[in-house]
Design brief:
128 residues; mainly beta
């Protein structure tokens, strides 16, 4: 069992930056690939980025490339999501989630139902 806690969200102006954290307890996070998802009001939860357990492979949705960077520090049992040049459309609850095997055929699992453990989410609100 893995318990995940997200933090780092908040209210920022468009163009600003945030760094979200996903801290794990229970089993070590280094055993799992980790993904970030987001869910805006009235919309489905959507995949944003993922990182392998070792940190040597990352995968991003096209719409976040160049603005979002996923990273991890296994010594701290934490995965991060750096978000730059924030836009009002980035407003959502951001969730981290884990699964053992993250990549297949060069792509990452990017559907919420394919992940096993979830955090409670952290709210990101971007004002225009």
């Amino acid at each position: 069992q893995v318990q995940l806690v997200e933090s780092g969200g908040g209210l920022v102006q468009a163009g600003g930056s945030l760094r979200l954290s996903c801290a794990a307890s229970g089993r070590t996070l280094s055993m799992y690939g980790t993904g970030w998802f987001r869910q805006a009001p009235g919309k489905e939860r959507e995949f944003v980025a993922a990182i392998s357990w070792s940190g040597d492979r990352t995968y991003y949705r096209d719409f976040v490339k160049g603005r979002f960077i996923i990273s991890r520090d296994n010594r701290k049992n934490t995965v991060y999501l750096q978000i730059d040049s924030l836009k009002p459309d980035d407003t959502a609850v951001y969730y981290c989630a884990t699964r053992r095997v993250l990549f297949y055929s060069g792509s990452a699992y990017d559907t919420a139902g394919e992940y096993d453990y979830w955090g409670q989410g952290t709210q990101v609100t971007v004002s225009s």
